[in-house]
Amino acid sequence: MSDDEFIDINVAKVDIQRDKRNGYPEVIYGQGKTADQIIKISKALLSKNKTVLATRVSKEKMSKIYKEFPDAVYDGCARCMSINKKNIKKPDGYIAIVTAGTSDIPVAKEAEFCADVLGNNVKSIYDVGVAGIHRLFSYLDVIRNAKVIIVIAGMEGALASVICGLVDKPVIAVPTSVGYGTSFKGITALLSMLNSCASGLSVVNIDNGFGAAYNASMINHL
To answer: Which SMART domains does this entry report, sorted A to Z (predicted)?
Structure first.
């Protein structure tokens, strides 16, 4: 491997050719990393003029990161940070992000933040879950006109199947860890979504707003 394929900073081997292979630079997963490690990886990416996108960055870590990168953009609800964001040409289509409940908004915010950095227009609709299904019908036009839809739900995760049965667009379901005891921190919603009878539904991991946004961005940019 040559020096222009990755940068070895001891704590990480930063992939600086990922955008050439996959269309977007390496993304930093902040959970489990220290603020100093995030800073070092960010510097390696910035040394090659890459956009820095980091997910699962706590406010405590961010307070230290800000001292090194005062121009960083951070969303505390999304727990996401970006530096040196590129002006990617956005396609005409947009991503619709729909949550079942207000408690699912943090995962939606992660998806929104990442989708924006990846160069997408986003329209978000919160709190239209099946406990009050009439709320959803007021927003069907916005949802149906999207190029791809992300549906985020905890509890039993039913909203993803409902929406997928009403649209002719790809639907990406995100189970969340929201719910009481037998929701098993999102496993119930995950299994429900995986067993959906609605055709065209794909599912990412529990609370994985980033993964949904990345997949949706690829579809939206086709």
So the answer is: AIRC
